[in-house]
Amino acid sequence: MHATLPLLKATDFPALRRRAVETLQVNLGYTCNQNCVHCHVNAGPNRQEQMDRATIDRVLDVLVAKDIRKLDLTGGAPELNPHFRDLVVEARCRGVHVIDRCNLTILFEPGQQALADFLAAQQVEVVASLPCYLEDNVDRQRGAGVFDKSVRALQRLNALGYGRDEKLPLSLVYNPQGPTLPPSQAALESDYRRLLGERFGITFTRLYALANMPIARFGSTLVSKGQFGDYMARLRAAHRPENVERVMCRTLVSVDWQGFLYDCDFNQMLGLHLHEAGQRHGRLHLDDWLEMDLADSPIIVADHCYGCTAGQGSSCGGALGS
Predict the structure, then answer these.
(1) What's the CA gap between 236 and 303, in Å, rounded?
(2) How far is CA 63 from the centre of its chain?
(3) Cα–Cα distance between 273 and 275 in angstroms, integer?
(4) Which helix (H) or strand (E) holds 200?
(5) For residue 168, which of 4, 67, 162, 291 is within the disulfide window of CB 3.0 to 4.6 Å?
(6) pTM, whole model, 2 decimals?
């Protein structure tokens, strides 16, 4: 795989500083039942990295100590971590809003038959990957049969009240098929609602349109095809300064499976750790955060940050502007 960090480090992206942390985004591990082309985590069935129970407990400690009210769980498939359900239950008991970034097909994996019922019982928000409303496009990007399983999973979630009950939000996530910017999120959401509703009776709360980041598996593919420079030029040309004020890293901290801290999930995959002179690990860990304040700390930027500010903008919560 081609390393993309050397191509991204030199940047003129605007300097950023963190505001108060509102969201703790935790990567529970890289194990996944899928192996998607656009995956910036390089997740897959052969990855074994998983967050252990001691680190899970430290996540809970930080949520309480820093009064963080939103826990965003990702992976891989976060549900494959053996401590996933314990973490969800304990976070919900502490009044924390929990988001599960679900690939939908996980609902049909062995041992996950009751997963949908569990998520509904805990009132976990589901953010579900569905990169297109057309079967061929989804299966080309995510694997044969994924679209059919995804539809059945969404119908199962709808039957439990997801996308219909305001206490059970269900968001869908769109990614472009290649090195292009997402279309208008509002227009795309309208198409998703119409086509998924007419064909399958599916309803959902909202759609997030996310740009593909020029890192990890997708970035390496761009390098292999000789498209990396063109894609970066497209992102930079579409940069909108007003989006800088709304990028997710200003109010979010990302945590890897070992408990180390990053400004965002993308920096995590590039190995751009949060650092603080004199810390025991040489890079910031959940343990360190308990003893310090991250507010107003500088955010590490590189050229991939243009992926979050190009066009309508892109974050884990979808488009930043119109």
Answers:
(1) 8
(2) 19
(3) 6
(4) helix 185-200
(5) 162
(6) 0.92
Instruction: Report the distance separating Cα 151 and Cα 214, nearest Å.
Output: 29
Q: Per-residue pLDDT tens for 170-186? A: 999 988 878 999 999 99
Which residues, in sequence order, are CB contacts of 162 under 8 Å at separation 6+? Answer: 120, 126, 168, 169, 170, 204
Q: What is the pLDDT of residues 228-280, one digit of tens each?
A: 999 999 999 999 999 999 999 999 999 999 999 999 999 998 999 987 644 45
Alpha-carbon span 264 to 272, nearest angstrom: 9
> Hey, what are 225's tokens?
């095809």
pLDDT tens readout for residues 145-177: 788 889 999 999 999 999 999 999 999 998 887
17-212+245-292 has CATH 3.20.20.70 classification:
yes
Could you tell me which residues come within 8 angstroms of residue 2 by beta carbon, excluding any fewer than 6 positions away? 219, 220, 223, 224
Rg (CA), the chain: 19
CB 200 within 8 A of CB 221: no
